[in-house]
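Internal ticket - ligand job 356, 4'-deoxy-4'-aminopyridoxal-5'-phosphate:
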Amino acid sequence: MRPSVRPDLARLSGYHSAQVDVEVRLNTNESPYGPPGAWRTEVAAAVAGLDLNRYPDREARALREAIARLHGVSVEQVFCANGSNEVLQSLLLAYGGPGRSVAVFEPTYQLHAHIARVTGTGVAVGRRTDDHALDLGEVAQVLAHAEPVVTFLCSPNNPTGRAEPPDVVDAVAALAPGLLVVDEAYGQFARSSALERVRHEDPEDAATVVVRTFSKTWSMAGVRLGYLVGPPEVVEACEAVVLPYHLDAVKQVAGRLALDHVEEMEERVSLLVEERGRIADVLGGLPVDTWPSEANFLLFRPRGRSAAVVWQGLVDRSVLVRDCSTWPGLSGCLRVTVGTREENDRFLEALEACLR
Ligand code: PMP
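stdout (structure tokens):
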């Protein structure tokens, strides 16, 4: 008899975006731009000099030091892993588990609840308002009832694009009984960041942990690198659960060298923010509901048309967006990633044709 999978896992389905062979892929919030040419050359030269017969630096010291300098924190406050999803998983391996729970406020990034369930952690679900804002009364109620070890915020929130203003993050931190984990995968596109809270910790509040990624603004989704900035004891806890040498030498070098190209990254962010504004303006004149976004994507809901039909109509015109219509609180909604100007024009033309 072969063993069956853990019964609690058998009920879970994975988190995947449909991959369809199209010309314009605007479904996974990647950067449409490749990494800077100079970075490619520098990485190739650095990799050629690596002793790949040896295990990498287990502490990823040089990379963590570079990230610490970028954010004005100490190296002991930085933990790196293979994408921010692995950072989130490490956090929940360390702090979650049977008898413990996390709190999420839907609609939000589905992986927070998914990773919690995979690690045997309970999930307390609160709802956002109809325009996807946090309702602090609801937050207080959920946190008082569940007493979660981790309270997740996602800011800007995937897939709504809404960023939490600092006073709202402060209010949640004052209510949260454990860690407050702010997922800022799209943080560079937003006006504010919870990093300020990590730099100036208030001992009265929940300890704040900010999670970031190289996948979006850094144009490095293929490298798989993410990190957290938080209190040193959280970093130590994550180091305790992660596998030995989890971060390979090539990735450590690639990440460290990327941090020498902050200006190019900021230029890309500006271009994408400008394009986001242009898309939002056009959507405003179409029969769709939209919401303000501080990320590199926009959520929209076709009025009087099924999301599935519009999604297929876009695919028929070789444009792929994310169908979020079955996600909690997002009935009828689609999400489009901001691409290059040409890609965005293709999307807007295809959408207008679908809605005609
Ligand atoms: N957090 C959020 C909110 C995301 O949208 C994503 C990417 N979909 C991630 C984390 C994970 O990113 P990665 O593992 O590529 O760093």
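Auto-summary: Residues 29, 83-85, 109, 154, 158, 183, 185, 213, 215, 221, 226 surround 4'-deoxy-4'-aminopyridoxal-5'-phosphate (CB under 6 Å). The mean pLDDT is 95.
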